[in-house]
Amino acid sequence: MAAVKKSVSVKDVARLAGVSEQTVSRTVHDSPSVRPETKERVRAAMRELGYRPNFAGRSLRRGKFKTVGVAMFNITGTGNLDRMEGFAAAADKHGYAITLTKVDGHPYTLESASSRMSALPVDGMVVIMNRMPADFGTFEPLPGMQTVLVTMLEHPLCSTVDNDQFDCSRQVVEYLLGQGHKTVHFISCPERSLSGMQREEGWRETLRAHGIEPPRFIRGDWTAQSGYAAGQALADDPTCTAIYASNDAMAYGCIRGLESRGKRVPEDVSVVGVDDSLGDIVPDRRLTTVRFDNKRVGMWAVDKIAGAEGVAPGVEHMLIPGVLVAGDTVHDVR
User: Is the dihedral angle over the CA atoms 64, 67, 68, 70 positive or is it negative?
Assistant: First the structure.
């Protein structure tokens, strides 16, 4: 019968390193009060003995796990990798870690995401709301589980942060109208996309603010192929001199669709996208688009949970504006 391996304690590490248990504890927390050579001796003893700090016990003493849970649909979705970089950067700054879970199910609920997170050693959770949860209006975060939602929608009990999708469309429409175009046609996105719906609303309301009735939009699905089909359809519309697509992939597809019908971009039709996500992939032109700071969104969310200096306590709602980046796909028709 194999012998049961004895667990290694702080006392064992202290004995091997020839220091006090308090010095071992301070070394674990990387305290500046311990000399570098002493830290190295303690860490060498920890490695030799296979010692790991008891973070569960430490969390009971301090009341924190120093971990933020992140719930998301699709890690590789546009902007999510940059948000993850922001989560990681802010967590590292505060000495926190990130626990990642994938949200499944349609419809999904914030309650189910919160319940799953409550079983994990986390101090708070961030939910990237690509879609509308069924219980958004009734959700109450668990006591002690600070919750930040990545969405433009305001919630009475949870802090929220996102790129300003409505203002993104306002910037695009104002820019194209300022270039002399009489109206702006729109390639929208799947109806379940919250960011896409906000972009659609921003496009519609900005045109109406100028006394222009929005033309009928075309529903896309985020892919270049759907943009290609939309471009072909809009090429036959003599009133169409400017097109705004909900993302860069559809914008580039739209350009190819227009060109397949003999239209020149930008001489005949101007095209603008959103995300600034494909500039390093498409080599032959610079798309006019809107750039978002998704890393900043991620950092703000973790800062809120970790209690960063300058972040107000309580519920906050933060919208981060995008920046319009002028390329070579818009023509001034004035």
Answer: negative
The 10 Å CB-count burial string (b at 16+, else e) for 109-130 is bbbbbbeebeeeebbbbbbbbb
CA distances from 31 to 10, 14, 22 (A): 16, 16, 11
**Helix boundaries (H) for 29-145:** 36-49, 55-62, 80-94, 110-118
More confident call, 21 vs 253:
253
Higher-confidence position of 227 and 104: 227
pTM of the model: 0.79
Q: pLDDT value at position 55?
A: 54
User: First-to-last CA distance in the chain?
Assistant: 88
Residue-wise pLDDT for 199-208, tens only, equals 999 999 999 9
The β-bridge partners of 68 are: 98, 124
Residue 323 tokens read as 């920046």
> Are 110 and 230 contained in the same domain?
yes
Residue 3 has pLDDT above 60, yes or no: no
If you average pLDDT over every residue of the chain, what do you get? Answer: 88
Residues 45 and 87 in one domain: no
Q: How far apart are CA 17 and CA 136, in angstroms?
A: 54
Looking at the structure, do residues 136 and 39 belong to the same domain, yes or no? Answer: no
The DSSP bridge pattern shows strands 289-291 and 242-245 to be unpaired
- Residues of the domain holding 46: 11-53
